[in-house]
Design goal:
By secondary structure, the chain is an alpha+beta fold. It is 28% helix and 27% strand. The strands form two sheets. The chain has a three-stranded antiparallel beta sheet, covered by helices on one side.
Length: 132
Amino acid sequence: MNDNELIGTGWLFPPQFRSPATGPEMVTNQQLIEQAITQLLNTRIGERMFEPDFGSGLYEFLFHTPDAEALADIKEEIAKAIAQHEGRITLQEINFDSRDIYDGLLNIELAYLINQTNSPANMVFPFYLGEG
């Protein structure tokens, strides 16, 4: 069994079509998981009508002062959202790259294990603190 069968295949988001004959562009493996995490963290809880529990409370931290308490709360919110909605991975670590924090950008570094393949992976999620 290959990784595509274990992890899945899905549409590229946002959807893209090269031609009507080939259908939508597809993604697989780690790219599919990264896309799902990005959608999860960018979706506000209650935003999806038919999945009102889907999403994260990350947007509650817009315009907050990025102090140690706020960063701890952000870390907790991300861990909770991923644990509830992304069963294909086990989150191992969340770190912050705050070099651009005063420009309104907090890079959130996620390290995780893909459960079905036991493969370590990571991604960076850019969180813009000044957008609303």
